[in-house]
């Protein structure tokens, strides 16, 4: 009897612990917490834009012929990104499902104790990585929009600021996986028929809220205007009202790339959700 009673108590303790962990996991990602995370990520992106705008284009950073490093073929930006990702992977960065590497094929296993990150995503989520598209858009389309032409020799610093902005944009775009999961849990009856039918267009329409997108674009531009001001204590100073970069770039970034790519990630995630 005593053994049976002790066993019953143990089962109750275990089941309570599991239930509490599940509740914690569910509460970690709700529509409200996801929205808060997206708003905070706007701050990171805007500050990263400001940091990159400090430097001119510095074309040598992206010149494939600039580096002469034995055993390495590529530009300085590729060298910095690849080596930084390797170090960060060893430190456990990519154990977090919110992080996605630009060169995942180069990563090594984490060397630090693992952290029990909340697991709410479908197991196939890890395969969704559109950083190649982000990389191409960043250098071909985004940079020319807001950095000045010229060369100041700060190539390593330029590459470091590029990396910070790339990672911020990547995290925001791939956060679409969590957005999709939370939305699916809120209204599975709306999504399941479209997923079964592999209806990408229908899913995209279901995920699109133009009024929300307009609000986001206005908010990031306002943040860029506020955060990017040249501050002066002298009201008559010529710098008063000047901007570190054009605030409309932040809005264009979201309109043309961040929002569409995030929805692309959401659709790809939902198509796997019922597998």
What would you say about this model in short?
Helices cover 63% and strands 0% of the residues. It contains 10 helices and no strands.
Structure characterization notes:
The chain is 63% helix and 0% strand. The longest helix has 27 residues, at 2-28. Helix 2 (31-53) crosses helix 9 (210-227). It has one domain: Chorismate Mutase, subunit A (Orthogonal Bundle). The chain is mostly helical and 275 residues long.
As a percent range, the share of strand residues is: under 5%
Number of helices: 10
- What is the rounded Rg? 23 Å
Question: What is the H/E string?
Answer: HHHHHHHHHH
How far from one another are the termini? 45 Å
Under CATH, the homologous superfamily reads Chorismate mutase, AroQ class superfamily, eukaryotic
């Amino acid at each position: 009897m005593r053994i049976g009673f002790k066993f019953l108590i143990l089962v109750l303790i275990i089941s309570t612990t599991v239930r509490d962990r599940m509740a914690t996991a569910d509460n970690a990602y709700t529509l409200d917490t996801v929205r808060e995370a997206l708003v905070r990520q706007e701050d990171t992106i805007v500050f990263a834009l400001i940091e990159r705008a400090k430097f001119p284009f510095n074309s040598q950073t992206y010149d494939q012929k600039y580096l002469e490093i034995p055993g390495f073929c590529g530009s300085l930006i590729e060298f910095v990104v690849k080596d930084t990702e390797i170090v960060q992977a060893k430190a456990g960065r990519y154990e977090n499902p919110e992080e996605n590497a630009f060169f995942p094929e180069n990563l090594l296993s984490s060397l630090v104790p693992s952290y029990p990150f909340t697991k709410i995503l479908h197991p196939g989520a890890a395969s969704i990585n559109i950083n190649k598209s982000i990389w191409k858009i960043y250098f071909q389309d985004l940079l020319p929009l807001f950095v000045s032409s010229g060369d100041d020799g700060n190539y390593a610093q330029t590459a470091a600021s590029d990396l910070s902005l790339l990672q911020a944009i990547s995290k925001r775009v791939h956060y679409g996986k969590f957005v999709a999961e939370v939305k699916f849990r809120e209204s599975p009856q709306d999504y399941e028929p479209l997923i079964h039918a592999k209806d990408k267009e229908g899913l995209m329409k279901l995920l699109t809220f133009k009024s929300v997108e307009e609000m986001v674009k206005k908010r990031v531009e306002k943040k860029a205007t506020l955060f990017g001001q040249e501050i002066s204590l002298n009201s008559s100073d010529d710098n008063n009202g000047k901007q570190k970069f054009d605030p409309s770039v932040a809005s264009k970034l979201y309109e043309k790339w961040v929002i569409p790519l995030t929805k692309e990630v959401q659709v790809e995630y939902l198509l796997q959700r019922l597998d």
